[in-house]
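Exercise 7. Given the encoded structure of a 422-residue chain, write a plausible sequence.
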């Protein structure tokens, strides 16, 4: 155990405390990100609702889909550059720069919003810039987890990391509608700017244990992203499945506003409740994953989670009821939250430390590769068909992906024992 690790875990009583209480640096980073991403979710909810009010009804779905496409492009197009930067630069520096730049951009947008001078076209380049910051931040945070916690706490740290977005989206969805009703679009954007500033302060204060550099082999550095993923036994097929999974699951962010408006015929309050239910389920699944055992191959376990997730998403397409939708979205989120933690922990185990920056950047690119097409396809279908049909299409796709995932091998059984982390 390294010196900082020993400091964190000195004494038997300290070990029994929850991770956030016995590791103040990890706690600061995590809490900062909850606030930052919660503010971002408030901003996204406000912006999508604002866009729906600015655009003609006939093009709402496609235009909102195009906005979400913009947010998916940077992690896909910049995967190689992001991975190299993360492996070469200190994790805290990369994340701190991302938060500061994003905070400045959102502050500028908030100023324009208070002046009621935000043109519709401007949200797209700002969204692209914010997504670029996020493309650097997200894989860097995953890569930095071993710099904040010791190996024995890795699954707990992954649970917190996986829950960050769930907590943030739950908080953002819960407060987003209230902020829209009280301080409006401009106030919601300003709240996001403040949360970026708080997250930057937390990162500046936290201390990371910098590992000894282990340079990647020259032959590995020359590999393309696709070939690099193929060099990790059993990993590339998993990422292909996850990319397909995201094609059908991520458009939920687009489907819910359309479903709320045209099927339930409710306002922003119901949208906030539906999103809160989904993210609360994800949160409970992320924290509960540590207590859920895996029997057999992890791919079979994941297939069950994804299949049940799809079944729960199908129910709002069959039954029009706000209360039923709330319950099924929470259950769907729980299944996805458990699956996310288990597979992220798997990747922390099988990927060598010197390649984690490149791997997590490549992973983000791989699993988001289908985002642009998905948002455009589901947005276009949403302009021509009922959101209930979109729910059923999502469910059918997820069930097929679950079947495919169940047939994949377990990467831990393909990888030589001497190359695994212990």
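Solution.
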């Amino acid at each position: 155990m390294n010196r900082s690790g020993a400091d964190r875990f000195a004494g038997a009583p300290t070990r029994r405390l929850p991770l956030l209480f016995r590791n103040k640096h990890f706690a600061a980073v995590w809490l900062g990100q909850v606030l930052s991403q919660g503010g971002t979710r408030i901003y996204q909810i406000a912006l999508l609702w604002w866009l729906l009010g600015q655009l003609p009804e006939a093009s709402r779905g496609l235009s909102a889909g195009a906005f979400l496409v913009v947010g998916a492009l940077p992690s896909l197009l910049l995967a190689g550059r992001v991975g190299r930067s993360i492996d070469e630069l200190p994790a805290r520096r990369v994340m701190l720069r991302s938060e500061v730049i994003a905070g400045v951009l959102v502050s500028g947008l908030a100023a324009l919003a208070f002046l009621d001078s935000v043109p519709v076209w401007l949200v797209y380049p700002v969204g692209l810039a914010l997504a670029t910051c996020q493309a650097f931040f997200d894989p860097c945070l995953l890569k930095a987890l071993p710099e904040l916690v010791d190996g024995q706490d890795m699954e707990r740290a992954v649970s917190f990391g996986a829950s960050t977005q769930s907590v943030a989206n739950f908080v953002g969805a819960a407060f987003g509608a209230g902020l829209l009703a009280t301080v409006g679009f401009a106030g919601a954007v300003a709240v996001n700017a403040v949360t970026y500033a708080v997250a930057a302060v937390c990162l500046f204060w936290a201390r990371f244990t910098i590992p000894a550099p282990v340079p990647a082999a020259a032959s590995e550095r020359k590999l393309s992203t696709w070939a690099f993923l193929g060099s990790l036994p059993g990993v590339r097929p998993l990422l292909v499945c996850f990319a397909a999974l995201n094609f059908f699951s991520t458009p939920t962010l687009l489907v819910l506003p359309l479903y709320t408006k045209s099927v339930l015929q409710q306002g922003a309050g119901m949208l906030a409740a539906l999103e809160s239910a989904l993210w609360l389920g994800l949160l409970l699944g992320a924290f509960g994953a540590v207590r859920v055992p895996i029997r057999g191959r992890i791919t079979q376990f994941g297939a069950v989670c994804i299949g049940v997730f799809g079944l729960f998403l199908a129910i709002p397409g069959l039954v029009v009821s706000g209360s039923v939708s709330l319950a099924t979205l929470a259950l769907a989120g729980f299944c996805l939250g458990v699956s996310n933690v288990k597979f992220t922990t798997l990747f922390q185990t099988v990927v060598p430390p010197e390649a984690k920056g490149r791997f997590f950047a490549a992973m983000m690119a791989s699993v988001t590769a289908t985002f642009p097409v998905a948002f455009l396809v589901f947005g276009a279908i949403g302009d021509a068909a009922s959101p209930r049909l979109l729910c059923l299409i999502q469910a059918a796709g997820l069930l097929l992906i679950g079947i495919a995932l169940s047939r994949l091998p377990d990467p831990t059984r393909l990888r030589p024992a001497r190359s695994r982390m212990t």
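Remark. Residues 1-15, 416-422 have pLDDT under 50 and may be disordered. Students should compare their own answers with the one above.
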